[in-house]
Write a structure and sequence with these properties.
mainly alpha; 2 helices; about 90% helix
């Protein structure tokens, strides 16, 4: 799960860097009067930035989901362990009662 957290942080930071770079390099003049290379570079930066931000958000959601599932699994295993212990104690009690009855009859 730590890998997902680090993936989230790195993807968001790097994605924000690309998005800011794309925004700052976006031409302020009319799109008809600008260099197509500048427009392509800005669009590419914005595209990479938004993709990385999306990956970061998805990794964060996946990390939160994994944590919730882990907590629910631990809780369920604890409940099963308690039920198994109670069942075993009941079996031991029943066996001891049976042995006591058989000992009284002899």
């Amino acid at each position: 799960m730590r890998l997902l957290v680090w993936t989230t942080i790195i993807a968001l930071v790097v994605g924000a860097g690309f998005a800011i770079d794309g925004y700052l390099s976006w031409p302020s003049r009319s799109l008809l009067d600008i260099d197509s290379e500048q427009l392509r570079t800005a669009g590419f930066s914005l595209s990479i930035g938004s993709t990385l931000i999306g990956i970061g958000v998805l990794a964060g959601l996946l990390a939160m989901h994994a944590r919730a599932v882990g907590l629910q699994t631990r809780s369920a295993l604890g409940a099963h362990t308690d039920a198994d212990a109670a069942r075993h104690a009941e079996e031991v009690r029943a066996q001891q009662a049976h042995e006591l009855r058989m000992g009284n009859r002899a």
